[in-house]
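Need a sequence for this fold. Nothing fancy.
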């Protein structure tokens, strides 16, 4: 079901900017809807011509394509919107909205250096820049200035130095910097609760036990909460096994707590 998001209110501002400029910088706070709504707006504006959307991670590319397919009437995954990531592909040569990881898009550029059939390229989450991102935007700007003045380039992010990116995206044709459109996000109230028991979290077991104890206390009603619980771990990838163990233990305790209340 398609719900209202903040970016919907600025659709006319976005299309107006694209009417008079080759490039665009879209700064949208988390929850604004830039990743799932703007590609559809761009597709409608450009007359159903193909759009490539670049994502830094495979999971983001897949999830965005699935979301767009589910919330737009008449869209089918692999037909109107799809994705191509390493070891996984769900699109055709005529799919109008195609999500790529940046590395896969560079492969697309090698086989189709003029990007024939594409009318726009969107670089999402630009603040997570990598060598693939820098190479892609450099090649796109060169292509636009030398052979494809009709190609639109859009950079999107929640956090970036918009003025510098706008200057970099200055049109070779007009000498005008890319316009910047800011979209507010959708926030939710957050309550912070500090534990009263100091504990060294130097071991995986200590961290797992603390997470398990806290979440179990919440679900058993000592600290009643309505909704889901999201646990952040800042300890790095080496603790992924500990995180999975904690998740499994929490799920087991949640089921036990709910069974006791039923």
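Here you go.
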């Amino acid at each position: 079901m398609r719900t209202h998001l903040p970016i919907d209110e600025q659709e006319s501002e976005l299309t107006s900017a694209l009417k008079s400029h080759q490039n665009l910088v879209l700064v949208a706070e988390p929850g604004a809807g830039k990743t799932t709504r703007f590609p559809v707006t761009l597709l409608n504006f450009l007359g159903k011509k193909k759009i490539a959307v670049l994502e830094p991670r495979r999971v983001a590319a897949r999830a965005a394509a699935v979301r767009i397919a589910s919330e737009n009437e008449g869209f089918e995954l692999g037909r109107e919107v799809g994705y191509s990531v390493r070891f996984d592909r769900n699109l055709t040569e005529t799919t109008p909205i195609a999500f790529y990881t940046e590395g896969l898009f560079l492969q697309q550029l090698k086989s189709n250096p003029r990007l024939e059939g594409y009318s726009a390229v969107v670089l999402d989450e630009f603040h997570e820049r990598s060598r693939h991102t820098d190479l892609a935007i450099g090649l796109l700007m060169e292509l636009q200035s030398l052979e494809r003045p009709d190609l639109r380039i859009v950079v999107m992010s929640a956090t970036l130095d918009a003025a510098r990116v706008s200057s970099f995206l200055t049109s070779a044709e007009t000498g005008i910097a890319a316009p910047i459109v800011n979209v507010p996000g959708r926030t939710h109230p957050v309550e912070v609760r500090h534990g009263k028991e100091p504990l060294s979290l130097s071991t995986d077991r200590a961290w797992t036990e603390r997470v398990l104890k806290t979440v179990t206390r919440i679900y058993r009603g000592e600290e009643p909460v309505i909704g889901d619980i999201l646990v952040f771990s800042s300890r790095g990838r080496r603790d992924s096994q500990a995180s999975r163990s904690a998740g499994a233990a929490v799920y087991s305790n949640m089921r036990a707590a709910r069974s006791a209340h039923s």
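For context: The chain has a mean pLDDT of 85.
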